[in-house]
Specification:
338 residues; mainly alpha; 3-stranded parallel β-sheet
């Protein structure tokens, strides 16, 4: 096993947008390069089993899994360098999850804030899968003895749960089977907000098309959305602190810096004292130059869905080979192999 193995998953949502790209996909590509430069290994999966926690039409789930795979490859995930697959092709995820359900405690799950947020006031009507999916998340990473897992602020609690489950399993069954994964926090991962209301995250569910830049948008649409993005009449200041009370301006600066792989302060220095009449056209050009090639490659890949299927199958074969001995060792530890 490599000294560092990074494992991460993403749900197969359709109509991916700029926030998805900058907040997750771009980070995965950077990790692929950085971790492998250190002699480590990266494994990325489409979390289609997690996609079942709320009803989704089967045809939509299949289509979105293919679309997500094409997006990852188009953005720079190399299936010859990273193990890229979808959960459903590796049954060991579900099998280990059931074993870990008997180690996890109800009290632990009751403390998971994500369930409370997603279930809202209708907790009794939520699926058992929505309540229990943090255990599947634990299985996702423990199955491969991941050493590091990329996490955002909203996922730190789930990684702690995975560590608790691993510790209890190792203690209960007198084994050192499971590695306790460490969080991998990327300071570069930005929080991208709506182009029309910077108090809300960029989301495909927003009724305003102008609020979200989709990865499938044509060049002229991308440029138009940035030109019409909500701002304020003030000039850009010299320091980030001066943007604290200007959320729309700060959001556009964050997007520019993330697309350009530059520090926000460096970008701000270039435009200090200038208005958005100068800033927004440059941002639009940068967005088109960055996102256009990804869109074109994604469209090309989606023209041959059999090729995408072959990529997922190849990755799943690798994942199954890595998962099999870990699952068997867990079964043996629990007395299931006779």
């Amino acid at each position: 096993m490599p000294t560092k193995r990074v494992v991460s998953g993403i749900k197969p949502t359709g109509n991916l947008h700029l926030g998805n790209y900058l907040g997750a996909v771009k980070q995965w590509v950077a990790m692929q390069d950085a971790i492998q430069a250190e002699g480590g290994e990266t494994m990325y999966f489409i979390a289609d089993l997690h996609g079942l926690t709320e009803f989704i039409a089967p045809a939509d789930l299949r289509s979105q899994t293919i679309e997500m795979t094409a997006t990852l490859v188009a953005a720079g995930i190399d299936p010859d360098r990273s193990v890229l697959f979808n959960q459903a092709r590796v049954p060991a995820h579900s099998e280990l999850s059931w074993l870990l359900n008997n180690v996890a405690r109800v009290g632990w799950l009751n403390r998971m804030t994500q369930f409370k947020d997603k279930a809202g006031k209708n907790r009794e009507g939520a699926s058992v899968g929505l309540y229990d999916y943090p255990v599947l998340m634990a299985a996702d990473v423990l199955l491969y003895n991941a050493t590091h897992v990329p996490v955002g602020d909203d996922q730190k609690q789930h990684l702690e749960l995975a560590r608790d489950i691993a510790t209890k399993f190792n203690t209960d069954y007198a084994t050192d089977l499971f590695t306790l994964p460490e969080p991998l926090v990327s300071a570069a991962a930005p929080r991208i907000m709506s182009l029309r209301d910077a108090s809300a995250k960029m989301s495909k569910s927003n009724p305003s098309e102008q609020s979200v830049v989709k990865l499938v948008d044509p060049d002229e649409v991308i440029a138009d959305k940035f030109r019409k993005a909500k701002t304020d009449p003030e000039l850009l200041p010299a320091t980030l602190d001066e943007l604290a009370a200007r959320p729309e301006a700060k959001n556009l600066l964050t997007i520019f810096a993330a697309l350009a792989d530059r520090a926000p302060q460096d970008v701000l220095t270039d435009y200090a004292g200038k208005g958005f009449g100068a800033f927004k056209p440059d941002l639009a050009d940068l967005a088109v130059a960055t996102l256009g090639p990804i869109r074109d490659e994604m469209v090309r890949l989606l023209d041959d869905r059999n090729a995408i299927d072959a990529i997922l199958d190849k990755g799943a074969q690798k994942a199954r080979a890595l998962a099999a001995p870990v699952l068997r060792s867990a079964q043996e530890a629990m007395g299931l192999i006779v």
